[in-house]
Design goal:
Order of helices and strands: HEEEHHEEHHHHHEHEEHHEEHHHHHHE
Oligomer: single chain
Helix content: 40-55%
Radius of gyration: 22 Å
Number of helices: 17
Largest sheet: 6 strands, mixed
């Protein structure tokens, strides 16, 4: 019901942040989004990204809590509470929030990821105060009953069936995640395991809400036809009056050093197109050897960032064993993340042959290295992909929201172009040799059953 979930938004925001280098030079006063920031007396962070192109605003509230913060055995509660936030409050009936937004001509949704949960509305500028009042109301006044909770639990169970259980590719990726993170809660699906979702109760939801939904655990981001001077009185009026709460420390079990390559194979009669994927345990901006994060972004572009990349040239064009091949990496995570490679075999090509071709490309990169020209060309492609980053109403708000909820500051977002520009060949190779190691990998195979 409430989509996109975390993986989709994270991918979109990562693509945008990777693209930011086309914007103004890092030495200029306005580097990327040029946001204004302030903090309310109750601890709520506020960010304003002014965009006067049209009289529209995107209003977003991000909570610094997600699926990775769940208690063991209660997977799915973060996503479940996201659904329940559209139920009744002390002043609104169940579903009235969405009806009011629709009546005002707006669009609204919500999303859950491992590290954050977010809610947004896109409305005409004059309707901003209305949605701020609504969002502030449900931050502190949510009313849950068994009559509201029990049917919504059925909704999320059906969402899991349709989005994961009935999709072999999604089930394989879920299993790969569990194999990648042996101890860390990133190994659990954001939506939850089915048997644990069935056991979620109103008491679980109320405890989650009471613990984490507070202004001092939230970030308000408004982008569009407004500036900080205009927003601040409204933020103080609606959010500033909500009292803060004591917050538990955000402690999570960490991954042990990986010791062995892992492999997951899923066969299903629904599969018509085989697929091969590999995830390498990798550092993020906040977890592991963080110095590699910027170099890994450049590496992903060199290895699998489009038709000019090594994987595409060698696996798709030269060896003709795949119809597609790419690499991706997101540095946004409170803890470790993954560097991912995937490919789809050409008709008649078996997965072992495709995997051998991918392995050869990676081995050649590690042995021979990347050239200065490759690094510069990768940066140029990253710059070229950012044409619309600043024009998007929600682009800057989403990137900043993900950054602030995963421990990255606004200043870091603004400094991204400069930091990418400083990445060297030596740094790219150091990152590649640290991450692209067999013992850090999980390889996934998606196959028909019976094999065709």
């Amino acid at each position: 019901m409430r989509k996109p979930r975390g993986s989709a938004i994270l991918g979109a925001a990562t693509a945008a942040i990777v693209a930011l280098a086309t914007l103004r030079p890092a030495s200029a006063p306005a580097q990327v989004f040029n946001p204004e920031t302030f903090t309310l007396a109750n601890g709520m962070q506020v960010v304003v990204v002014t965009n006067r192109r049209s009289p529209i605003v995107a209003h977003m509230v991000w909570y610094k809590v997600g699926a990775a913060d769940e208690k063991h055995g209660r997977s799915g509660i973060a996503h479940f509470l996201e659904h329940l936030m559209f139920k009744a409050t002390k002043s609104l009936s169940s579903g009235e929030f969405s009806r009011i937004v629709a009546r005002e001509g707006g669009r609204e949704n919500a999303f859950t990821s491992f590290d954050y949960t977010g809610y947004f509305q896109n409305v005409e500028r004059s309707r901003l105060e209305t949605v701020m009042r609504l969002e502030a109301d449900r931050m502190s006044n949510l009313l849950l009953t068994d009559a509201a909770v029990d049917p919504e639990r059925d909704v999320i169970l059906e969402e899991r069936r349709s989005s994961i259980d009935n999709r072999p590719g999604a089930r394989l990726r879920e299993q790969m995640g569990a194999a990648t993170f042996l101890n860390h809660p990133y190994g659990r699906p954001v939506i939850g395991w089915m048997h644990e979702m069935r056991a979620l109760t109103r008491a679980d939801a109320e405890e989650w809400y009471a613990t984490y939904y507070a202004p001092n655990n939230a970030v308000l981001i408004v982008a569009g036809d407004i500036d900080a001077a205009e927003l601040k009185p409204l933020a103080e009026k609606y959010y500033g009056v909500i009292p803060p709460k004591p917050l538990p420390p955000r402690l999570r079990p960490q991954e042990p050093p990986p010791q062995a390559a892992r492999r997951v194979q899923l066969k299903d009669r629904q599969v018509s197109q085989p697929w091969l994927g590999r995830s390498y345990l990798a550092p993020s901006y906040r977890g592991g050897e963080t110095r590699h994060a910027y170099a890994l972004q450049v590496l992903a572009e060199i290895l699998g960032g489009g038709t000019q990349s090594r994987l595409y040239r060698e696996v798709v064009l030269d060896k003709n064993v795949a119809t597609s091949a790419d690499a991706s990496y997101s540095a946004f995570a409170l803890d470790m993340t993954t560097f991912d490679v995937s490919a789809t075999p050409r008709s008649g090509v078996e997965l072992p042959a495709l995997e051998a071709a991918i392995d050869a490309t990676i081995a050649r990169l590690l042995e021979v290295g990347v050239s200065e020209q490759e690094v510069e060309d990768a940066k140029a492609r990253m710059r070229a992909s950012a044409v619309f980053a600043r024009d998007s109403l929600q682009g800057g708000a989403r990137i900043i929201g993900i950054a602030l909820t995963t421990g990255v500051g606004v200043a870091d977002v603004e400094a991204w172009p400069q930091r990418i520009a400083q990445v060297t060949v030596a740094q790219v190779m150091e990152a590649a040799r640290a991450v692209l190691r067999a013992e850090r990998s999980v390889t996934g195979e998606l196959l028909p059953d019976p094999p065709s």
